[in-house]
Amino acid sequence: MTDNIMEKLIEGNNKYQWKIKQDLEPIEIKGKGPKYPVLFLTCMDSKIDIHRIFQLSPGDAFVLRNAGNLYTKDTLRSALIAVYEYNVKSIIILGHLDCGMKKVNLMKLKDKLNITSLKMIMSQGTNVFLEFQKFFKTFVDEIKNIMYQVEKFQETKFFPADVKIMGMLYDPSTGWILQDSEFSRYSIYENFMRDYKKIIENKKYKMIDYIESIESEILGIKDIKPAEKIEITKIGPQLAKISETFEHPEQEITNFNPHQYGEFQDLFEKSSEIIEKTIKMVSKIKTPKISVPKVKVYIPKVRKSNDN
C-alpha cells in the first residue's frame, strides 16, 4: 500500500514538472513572505483545501494544520514567526462542520495505541479518560471550539495590537464559508443548525448581488459595443413574441405571416453574431458557474399544395 502511494506521489510530481515545462503552471517566487498578510490555522481533514476555498494561489497565504485546528505550542511558534518575521496581520482559525474530532472515541483509541504511546500520555496522571482528553483535546461543538481557539491565541498577549485574530466556519458539503459574526452568537450548536438553512439562504441572496456586481466581467459586456448591448436586451422579448406565433408547429400555413418570418430571420442572424461573441468570452471564465435557460423557437411546417 505504501509503495503504491509513493508511486502515485512521484507520478503527480512528474505531471507537475511536465506542466512547468509547458508553462501551464509557472513557478513564481516573489518576496520572502506570503502575498497576503494572513495565516490560516485549519484542520488536517483532507477535504479542507484553503487555496481552493478562497481561490488563492500558491504563495498567497500561510497555512497551518492539525487535528481540530487547535491552539498548541507549535502553532504558537509558527504564528509568532509569521507575525514578527513576515508581517502577518490576520490569524484565522478555520474550523469546519462534521469534524472528525467530534467522533473520536477515546477509550477505543486507547486500545489501538502501543505501550510506548500509552506511557507517554499517562505520564502525568492515572485517570485514563482525563489524561486522554487533555492530550487529544476532542470536542463536541465545532463553533465553541473555534471561538475557544481564538480566545487562546488572544490570551497569550504575544501579538501586536494591530494583529486581528478571528474565526471562520467551513461547510465541506456546500463550500460555504461563514464569518464569526454569522455563527458566534449561537451558544448552543443545535440552535445554530436549526437556523443553518436560513443562514445559507441569506448568503445565496448576497451571492446574487455579487454576481450582478461582476456581470460585465462574466458576460464580457465591456467588450461589446453600446448598440450591441441594447440588442441583447431586446433579443429575448422579441424571440418570445415571434415564437408565440409558431407555438403549434402543426398549424396550417394560412396562419403564417411572411413579414414576421422575415423579421425573425433578421433577428436570428443579428442575435447569433452577438451570442457567438459572448460565448467566446464566457468560455474563458471558470467561476462562478451560471446556467442559462434554453429558448425554444418553433418553426412552422410548410405543407406543399397538391393542386397539380
- Order of strands across the widest beta sheet? 2-1-3-4-5
Taken from the alpha-carbon principal axes, the silhouette is globular
Low-confidence stretches: 250-254, 285-293
The helix-strand sequence is HEHEHEHHHHEEHHHHH
Number of strands: 5
Distance between the termini: 81 Å
* Quaternary structure of the protein: single chain
Mean pLDDT: 82
CATH class of the domain at 31-106 and 139-213: Alpha Beta
In CATH, the topology of the domain at 31-106 and 139-213 is named Beta-carbonic Anhydrase, Chain A
- The tally of helices reads 12
Category from helices, strands and their pairing: alpha/beta
Second-tier CATH architecture of the domain at 31-106 and 139-213:
3-Layer(aba) Sandwich
Binned, the helix content reads 40-55%
Largest sheet: 5 strands, mixed
| Strand percent estimate | 5-15%
Q: Radius of gyration in whole Å, from Cα?
A: 30 Å
Which SSEs are present, and which pair or pack?
Elements: H1 2-21, E1 38-43, H2 50-53, E2 62-66, H3 73-86, E3 90-96, H4 106-112, H5 115-121, H6 128-136, H7 142-155, E4 164-170, E5 177-179, H8 180-183, H9 189-213, H10 215-219, H11 226-245, H12 258-282
Helix pairs in contact: 11-12
